């Protein structure tokens, strides 16, 4: 059991259990990712849906197409609470570029709330979100746990990812660093660290890879499941601790009641009182400094909007539909796109992903692992299109 190989195998079994199934790539064999010309975006069934999608709750029968085009209540538009009042002063921002693009101009909705904070926890929001399963809502979750967690997010820092006033230069430049093998020997560390803010996620190994991935870290994004799995699976590559630093902020993706429980305990600085992480000390992951300012919570409406408009996978129409969600990397990149002025993506899946190892820190090349709950080919197509539209800069080689 001590050998790295076994640890990895155990992790895969673990991940397989939580995701119910691992796909072995054959799911995607019909997708020709190397085709030189992508089909026009407007004809893609996965993008450009005029209305947000209602993601059917688990156990609901999924007749093909039964939920497509269904309208949802516009509650989050009417009841989104106060928005951060910090408009960008950057002339060449993501917002400007997206709005100028005929296709993406129709997809982006920059008025969607990105984060959730105390004022969002109202009876109306509860009634609306309790009808959607995680991560898009609160179906089946304890009102007490969710409410007491969200109500702790009462600092002004919980309402925005960062304070624009600290970037007087105008344009806030962000790098989002995925863990893809493309970064091995890339020597992009300096370029990454030159950004104002750097997002990292899951098994973000830095030590020993500084030249390739840099050292700066402003945000670390995760679900409790992916964070703990990363500590197990990538321990052999030196990922023995969640990154910690004074100015580092943690972005919780609320994919399970575990995430709300861990977040609450982290702010309170106390062990997790119940559930599958019972007894876990949040300080072990996030360091000794416990305060609401340190933590951000993605809004379930934001996750719903991202999935419906940017990453509406065909997997939603399969028996795994209720498990599907965009990958942690995709959620971080899209979060950056809705908050930063300029966004560079490093270590994300590219058309030639087969040339690279799964992660940049593996010692020998391992093929990319496809999980049943993600759609990496759809994500790859989205990054390619955003890059071509000049909305992101995707690192490729
Ligand atoms: C947030 O809530 C906590 C606990 O209820 C309270 O002690 C604190 O003063 C509040 N902070 C702000 C900024 O309102
Ligand atoms: C990383 O890059 C080096 C140099 O290009 C190469 O020799 C090595 O095989 C790569 N490692 C993996 C895991 O792909």
Strand order of the largest sheet: 5-4-3-2-1-6-7
**Helix/strand-derived class?**
alpha/beta
Helical stretch count? 14
What value does the Rg take, in angstroms? Answer: 20 Å
Number of strands: 7
N-to-C order of helices and strands: HHHHHHEHEHEHEHHEHHEHE
Let me know the average pLDDT.
Answer: 84
Query: What is the overall silhouette?
Result: globular
Q: Which percent band covers the strand fraction?
A: 5-15%
Major sheet characteristics: 7 strands, parallel
Cα separation of the termini: 37 Å
Helix content: 25-40%
Low-confidence stretches: 1-84
Quickly describe the structure.
This protein has 397 residues and is of the alpha/beta class.
Helices and strands, with pairings:
Elements: H1 4-18, H2 75-78, H3 94-100, H4 104-107, H5 123-129, H6 143-150, E1 173-177, H7 189-193, E2 197-201, H8 210-213, E3 219-222, H9 224-233, E4 249-252, H10 257-268, H11 282-286, E5 295-297, H12 300-309, H13 328-337, E6 342-346, H14 376-388, E7 393-394
Parallel strand pairs: 1-2, 1-6, 2-3, 3-4, 4-5, 6-7
Helix pairs in contact: 6-10
Bound molecules: 2-acetamido-2-deoxy-beta-D-glucopyranose (2 copies).
